[in-house]
Design brief:
Largest sheet: 7 strands, antiparallel
Distance between the termini: 25 Å
Helix content: 25-40%
Strand content: 35-45%
Shape: globular
Order of helices and strands: EEEEHHHEEHEEEEHEE
Length: 222
């Protein structure tokens, strides 16, 4: 699969059987770096990028942003993330930040003819958050709202010691008829921005569209 930016605010992934996925990112999102060779280089890239993209913020904000982003990279690699972006904004005077990532994954062969139900059942067994089935303009999907804790490597902290960080998240999985699923996830470590980022992410998810190899819009079966 390859990631391609079709327009300034339009993103797309092309999976097997030439099913293309497109979605719209809100203004203000910037893509995260993925070229680091090791943790030290990644830390330097994230801090440099933070200073460039948040020129008016102090070092504490830069570090918080870098920590939040860095804790996702292991999951990015493991989950085959093909797009990852971040945004920062002020909510009631508090600087808040969030990431959004998008990937495609193979469905379990046991998913059958109703993969959304299978995904929902599997996620409920995992007990990682509140799970619901929803209908989007592009077809059926499964949502999961929860939080996760992780230890941030000492190389990426201001104190030089490993530090815990909690990220609240919304994950949406949209099964595709070719045996894959599109996975979108928004995460934020700043509770003050949860309502704002949740509403923003809902708009991203609702913008998802599928197209066949002739460029015709298709809706996934329920």
């Amino acid at each position: 699969m390859a990631t391609d930016i079709a327009e300034e605010d339009l993103r797309s992934l092309t999976g097997s059987e030439d099913v293309e996925v497109r979605w719209v990112m809100p203004e203000g999102f910037l893509e995260l770096p993925f070229e680091a060779e090791d943790m030290d280089e990644l830390a330097a890239q994230l801090m440099e990028f933070a200073a460039t993209t948040l020129p008016g913020a102090d070092e504490e904000v830069h570090v918080q942003w870098a920590l939040m982003c860095a804790m996702n990279y292991d999951a990015f690699i493991e989950g085959g993330v093909q797009y990852a972006g971040f945004v920062t904004t002020e909510v009631e005077g508090v600087r808040c930040t969030a990431t959004v990532n998008v990937s495609m994954t193979d469905l379990d062969e046991r998913a059958g003819r109703h993969p959304a139900g299978f995904i929902a059942t599997t996620m409920r067994h995992l007990d990682i958050g509140e799970v619901d089935e929803v209908m989007l303009p592009c077809g059926p999907a499964v949502t999961c709202v929860g939080s996760r804790k992780a230890m941030v490597d000492a190389e990426l902290t201001q104190t030089g010691q490993p530090e815990p960080l909690t990220t609240s998240f919304i994950q949406v999985q949209i099964p595709v008829k070719n045996g894959t699923a599109v996975v979108l996830e928004m995460g934020t470590p700043t509770a003050e921005g949860w309502d704002t980022f949740s509403a923003m992410f809902a708009g991203i998810v609702k913008s998802v569209r599928f197209f066949d190899d002739e460029g015709v819009s298709v809706v996934m079966p329920g």
